[in-house]
Amino acid sequence: MFGVTTESETTPRSFLFLLGSARKDGNTELLARQAASRLPGDVEQRWLHLADLRLNPFPDLRHVGDGVAYPQPTGNERTLLDATLGATDLVIASPLYWYSVSADTKLYLDHWSAWMRVPGIDFKARMRGRTLWGVAALAGQDHQTADPLAGTLRRCADYLGMRWGGVLMGTGSEPGQVLGDASALERADTFFDASRTPVTSAAAR
Q1: Which residues contact 159 (CB under 8 A, 6 or more apart)?
Q2: Domain range enclosing 41
Q3: Which of 41, 42, 99, 141 has the most CB atoms lying inside 10 A of its own CB?
Q4: How is residue 100 annotated by DSSP?
Q5: Which residues make beta-bridge pairs with 132?
Q6: Reduced to 3 states, what is the DSSP secondary structure of residue 116?
Q7: CATH number of the domain within which 116 lies
Q8: Could you tell me if residue 203 is inside a domain?
Q9: Number of separate domains in the chain
Q10: Orientation angle between helical segments 75-85 and 103-115, nearest 10 degrees
Q11: Alpha carbon distances (Å) from 26 to 79, 170, 195
Q12: Is residue 1 included in any domain, yes or no?
């Protein structure tokens, strides 16, 4: 089993599932829950719907003054920040929307730029060594159409020095359709298996 390694200990795994779909109980969520059902019972799971935690539009203040003009997060933004930093494993579950992540997911990722610049949070340093996973449902059988989604998440992991666990993909457009994708369900059964070794980015080495 792997976790976030510090100088003195290895933190037990805890998973944060961020659901980026525009509807509840969608195919992406069903696929994520199938994979999560195979996690050991002692592994903490937290599930948050981004649609329930609306964020303000991201203001680009990086070049305003000294570049650290971002205030301490409050409200939904603070909830998401604390949940993100509280997990060893971050699972972004977003359906494929126009070949990339959903709008709610993209806005959440945009706020990472702010969190890296809020004094005292040390977001980038604290995310280093954690693991980022993706789960996505798409309408067609050609998973290569989701390459931009996978690339976005993979590059985010690389930039922060996180491990990259990959993207679990399944086919589903109509409600519940992904449950008929036998190959996706088979992959889900071992997706979070502790024996799988996520890719470690150069920044995390």
Answers
A1: 203
A2: 14-194
A3: 99
A4: B
A5: 90, 164
A6: coil
A7: 3.40.50.360
A8: no
A9: 1
A10: 80
A11: 23, 12, 29
A12: no
For 61-191, strand residue ranges (E) read: 89-93, 131-138, 163-171
- Which residues fall within 8 angstroms of residue 90, CB to CB, at 6 or more apart? 15, 16, 18, 84, 130, 131, 132, 133, 162
Residue 26 CB: number of other CB atoms within 10 A?
A: 22
199 inside domain: no
Residue at token pair 């989604």: 149
> Token pair 């996978």 is at which residue?
150
Query: Quick one: 48 exposed, middle or buried, by C-beta within 10 A (0-12, 13-18, 19+)?
Result: middle
Domain annotation covers residue 200: no
Per-residue pLDDT of the chain (205 residues; tens, 9 = 90+): 344 444 324 689 999 999 999 999 999 999 999 999 999 999 999 999 999 999 999 988 877 776 567 889 999 999 999 999 999 999 999 999 999 999 999 999 999 999 999 999 999 999 999 999 999 999 999 999 999 999 999 999 999 999 999 999 999 999 999 999 999 999 999 999 976 667 776 555 5
Tokens of 71: 């205030």
Q: Which amino acid is at 23?
A: R
pTM of structure: 0.90
Of residues 85, 98, 99, 103, the one with CA closest to residue 22: 103
* Kind of pairing between the strands at 199-200 and 163-171: antiparallel
Which residue is listed with tokens 């399944």?
170
